[in-house]
Write a structure and sequence with these properties.
The complex is a heterodimer of chains A (228) and B (375). With 228 residues, chain A is an alpha/beta fold. Chain A has a single domain, classed as 3-Layer(aba) Sandwich (Rossmann fold). Helices cover 32% and strands 29% of the residues of chain A. In chain A, strand 1 and strand 2 form a beta hairpin. Chain B has 2 domains: 166 residues, no CATH class; 147 residues, no CATH class. Helix content of chain B is 53%, strand content 19%. Chain B has 13 helices and 12 strands. In chain B, strands 1, 3, 4, 5, 6, 7, 8, 9, 11 and 12 form a 10-stranded mixed beta sheet that branches. In chain B, helix 2 packs antiparallel against helix 9 and helix 2 packs across helix 11. Chain B is elongated. At the A-B interface, helix 1, helix 2, strand 6 and helix 3 of A face helix 1, helix 10 and helix 13 of B. Bound molecules: adenosine-5'-triphosphate and magnesium ion (MG). The site of magnesium ion has 4 residues of chain A, from helix 1.
Chain lengths: 228, 375
């Protein structure tokens, strides 16, 4: 079984007119199952850029990216949704939930994007929402629950489909300490029990203890690595 | 995806209501314009279309039903002598003046027809009968003329041109594009009344072909044989009259323009609201893409929104339109509502809303991942 993520000399250069910004410099990385990886580093160090490329929503400038044995860089734009559908889920700082849909419906829609529908989707949504502690609020609209609960809906959406890779950008950025911790604990629990590969880009040092492998980024490169 | 679109629409009630109003405004206007226009067209050829006859002989270069010049009556014999013609009647359509009871004059369209066959005469009577016109200075006026001429009752006398005529009947549904009041008389009386027609002339010859003969063939042959007149099939003459009023008066163009403008206004309103809604949901749509949705999945949501806007707007407009047919009838106007018009407007509405959605679709195509990550 290949590793979830293998990158070789992965590089991203943003071009804005004549100015070129190298947001990620020749990065080599292997990510394993069952591990929570934390991307730390100052603002502008390239955390989001790396995460976007791992999630196949941003095209690398050069280098290679391999997801469970699939070489992604050579794929056409039309082929990327298939990779994302099969392997990847996201959690965002801003939750990105449909305000018009209930917690349950948001999760169901996420599942639908993964090709999971009907009874199976219903079962998974109910299970996941109770896992994140929202059993009672399943049929609430996002505006009717707290920020922490909203992020937990997003977590449920990301986790419901068994995607082996979960990418989270500042998942605790809009949450207070205790809610942030709860979300991280949930992710860690998932990583351990379901052997998923979880990558969290964050500034939040308070959750450092819940991270298995810390990658410290600076200026588009990984400068330090620490495993606990 | 349809469900998601529906939920988005139901969630943002104010925006959806504005969109609905916009669509209803545009579509009702289109319905109205198409209906009134076709009503006018129908009116303009209503007499031709109700006259039993396959072939119309008219003066040379004659442009329409209402303004037709006389030609010699002997063409009647030329027409009736054609082996494929079964019967023929002369018909006068001419302009005269009627004296109002309270003084003043009103222009009026006089139709003189053969009272024995009734060809070219009224087809629906409220009072009296076309046969009552025989042998005397008798006339039938149409109900629709009352607005211009004041209350007219059977038994009244009115001064028409040089003569005093007695009203012997009231017809219904006879109108003209010119909106002039219409009066029926016998062929002979019309000839006497309208001096510019003259005693040896007619304005039309309306003929029937024998069973199994194509009117087109006969019209073509007669047209070649009879010099100095034009020969049409009834449907061609009807169309020619409609086209004259639609095109030569610019009426068709102005209706068309209103329809195009309504269409564009509707498209703008729908396009605007769908675009705003899409931009507001761009993060969510982007998230769906990140989870594996193809562009097509998201297009479906956007097009479903457009579709819902179109259908609700259309249905409300249709109801309004059907209700307003009655109101138009009160004003003696005809608005045509038929299944094929409804279908056409439905198509137009769908095209309008779908086209409006295309602007939004283009935004989905290349979602910048940066959008997703902004807190
Ligand atoms: N779309 C873009 N176009 C041009 N430059 C970009 C773009 N996105 C990011 N950059 C630049 O790339 C570099 C890395 O940005 P990135 O967003 O990956 O940093 P980050 O570590 O996520 O920062 P933060 O902690 O503030 O989220 C920065 O210098 C940024 O200005
Ligand atoms: Mg970032």
């Amino acid at each position: 079984m290949p590793d979830p993520v293998v990158t070789k000399e992965l590089t991203k250069v943003y071009k804005e007119g004549k100015i070129e910004v190298t947001a990620l410099k020749s990065t080599n990385l292997i990510l394993e199952k069952g591990v929570v990886v934390g991307l730390f580093g100052p603002s502008g160090s390239g955390k989001t850029t790396l995460l976007s490329m791992l999630g196949c929503i941003l095209r690398p400038t050069s280098g290679s990216l391999n997801i469970f044995g699939n070489e992604v860089c050579g794929l056409a734009e039309e082929d990327l949704p298939r990779i994302r559908r099969e392997f990847i889920s996201f959690i965002f700082q801003g939750f990105n939930l449909f305000p018009a849909l209930t917690a349950y419906e948001n999760v169901i829609l996420g599942l639908k994007m993964k090709g999971i529908v009907g009874e199976d989707a219903d079962k998974r949504a109910c299970y996941m929402l109770s896992e994140v502690g929202l059993k009672e609020r399943m049929h609430f609209l996002p505006r009717d629950v707290s920020g922490g609960q909203r992020q937990r809906i997003a977590v449920a959406r990301a986790l419901a489909a068994d995607s082996p890779i979960i990418l989270a950008d500042e998942p605790t950025g809009n949450l207070d300490q205790s809610n942030g911790r709860k979300v991280m604990e949930l992710l860690k629990h998932m990583a351990a029990s379901q052997r998923r590969c979880i990558v969290v880009a964050t500034h939040d040092n308070r959750i450092m203890d819940l991270i298995d492998r810390v990658l410290y980024m600076e200026d588009g490169s990984i400068r330090q690595e620490k495993r606990s | 995806m349809f469900y998601v679109a529906l939920r988005i629409i139901l969630y943002d009630k104010v925006r959806s209501l504005i969109t609905l109003l916009g669509v209803v405004f545009a579509v009702s206007l289109i319905f109205n314009q198409v209906g009134i226009f076709l009503g006018l067209m129908e009116t303009s050829s209503v007499i031709i279309d109700h006259t039993p006859g396959d072939i119309w002989v008219t003066a040379k270069n004659n442009k329409n039903f209402d303004y037709s010049l006389p030609f010699p009556e002997y063409f009647y014999n030329h027409t009736i002598s054609d082996p494929d013609i079964q019967s023929a009647d002369k018909l006068i359509v001419a302009w005269g003046v009627i004296r109002q009871l309270e003084g003043g004059n009103e222009q009026l369209e006089i139709i003189g027809f053969n009272t024995d066959t009734g060809v070219g005469g009224p087809w629906e009577m409220m009072e009296g009968s076309p046969r009552d016109l025989k042998n005397g200075n008798f006339a039938i006026v149409d109900e629709s003329a009352m607005k211009r001429l004041g209350r007219i009752q059977v038994g009244d006398y009115r001064d028409v041109l040089s003569r005093r005529v007695k009203i012997v009947g009231i017809s219904r549904g006879v109108k003209s594009f010119t909106t002039a009041p219409i009066m029926f008389t016998s062929y002979e009386l019309a000839q006497h009344l309208v001096s510019y027609v003259g005693s040896q002339s007619t304005v039309f010859i309306v003929a029937k072909v024998k069973p199994g003969v194509r009117p087109e063939t006969v019209a073509e042959r007669l047209g070649k044989r009879l010099k100095g007149v034009d020969v049409y099939t009834a449907s061609d003459f009807s169309m020619k009259t409609r086209m004259y009023w639609a095109i030569e008066t610019g009426v068709g163009f102005s209706f068309m323009l209103t329809i195009v403008i309504s269409f564009l206004v509707g498209m703008l309103i729908v396009g605007q609201t769908i675009y705003n809604s899409t931009m507001e949901h761009i993060k969510e749509f982007g998230t769906l893409k990140a989870l594996g949705a193809s562009n097509m999945d998201i297009y479906k949501i956007i097009f479903s929104q457009a579709m819902i806007n179109a259908m609700t707007g259309y249905i409300v407009s249709l109801i309004i339109t059907i209700a307003s047919v009655k109101i138009y009838e009160l004003g003696a106007m005809v608005m045509v509502v038929e299944w094929w018009i409804n279908l056409m407007v439905l198509g137009l509405t769908l095209v309008m809303c779908m086209a409006a959605a295309f602007v939004s679709v283009r935004r989905i195509k290349s979602i910048d991942p940066a959008i997703l990550f902004r807190g």
